[in-house]
Amino acid sequence: MQDDAGDAIAEAATPMPDGRLVLRADRLFGTRQEVEIHVGAIVYRLRLTKAGKLILTK
After folding, report:
1. 43 by DSSP, 3-state: which?
2. Which pLDDT score is estimated for 1?
3. Phi, psi at residue 51, to the nearest 5°?
4. Burial readout 11-33 (b: 16 or more C-beta within 10 A, e: otherwise)
5. Tens digit of each residue's pLDDT (9 = 90 or more) over 2-58
6. Considering its fold, how many domains does the chain have in total?
7. How far apart (Å, rounded) are the C-alpha atoms in residues 10 and 4?
8. What residues make up the domain containing 40?
9. Strand partners, 45
C-alpha cells in the first residue's frame, strides 16, 4: 500500500519503454516549492525556483 507521497509520485511518473520514469515537476511539487529525497541516511532537497529552475542541495 502506498502512502500519499507514493501516490503523488505514481501520478506524476510516466514509465518509458526503456524502464526510466519521467516525472513532471508541476505534478511532483504540486503547490510546494521543495521536496526531500532520502538516499540512505542522506537527505537531499530539491527546490523549484520562481524562475522554474531546479536546485538540488545536500
Report:
1. strand
2. 43
3. -80, 0
4. ebeeeeeeeeeeeeeeebbeeee
5. 466 667 667 778 889 999 989 888 888 889 999 999 999 999 999 999 999 999 999
6. 1
7. 10
8. 4-57
9. 36, 57
